[in-house]
Amino acid sequence: MLENLEQSNWTRKNADHLFSRATFGGTPEEREAFYQLGKNEGIEAAVDSLTEATEDWSNHPYPEWTYDPEDPNGDELSSSTKWEDFTDWYIGMLRNGDPLSGKILKFL
Predict the structure, then answer these.
(1) What is the torsional sign of CA 16, 19, 21, 24?
(2) Could you count the other beta carbons within 10 Å of the beta carbon of residue 34?
(3) Rounded distance between C-alpha atoms, residue 69 and residue 39, angstroms
(4) Which end of the chain has a smaller Cβ tally under 10 Å, C or N?
(5) What is the rounded end-to-end Cα distance, in angstroms, of the chain?
(6) Residues paired with 70 in a beta bridge
């Protein structure tokens, strides 16, 4: 079980770790500003950064790779239906899903 981080333990190292996990990086200035928020506001900002929509995917066209029934490794998929289902799910998550899922899906 995780223990609460005491305010006295809110260090730049802890803040940097949380910031990099929640935002996938950041400039030194952004990391310092995050640290300066303090523990409570910093954690709230980290959660907000994961749940805020930063991009509007609703009008993006389907990527070119979605039209090819071959996977990136060159293996033919057993069924084009599986590929279509995956494509619809993936693009649907980006267009209509929660922002955290959309951000994570970009790394697939």
Answers:
(1) negative
(2) 23
(3) 48
(4) N
(5) 29
(6) 76
* CA-wise closest residue to 90 among 61, 66, 64: 66
Cβ neighbors of 14 (< 8 A, separation 6 or more) are 5
Given a cut of 70, is residue 91 above it in pLDDT? Answer: yes
Please say if the pLDDT value at position 33 is more than 80.
yes
pTM, to two decimals: 0.48
Tokens read off for 74: 């060159």
For the four alpha carbons of 51, 56, 64 and 88, in that order, the dihedral sign comes to: positive
CB count within 10 Å of CB 94 equals 19
Which run of H or E residues covers position 36?
Answer: helix 28-36
Helices (H), 8-96: 12-23, 28-36, 39-51, 80-96
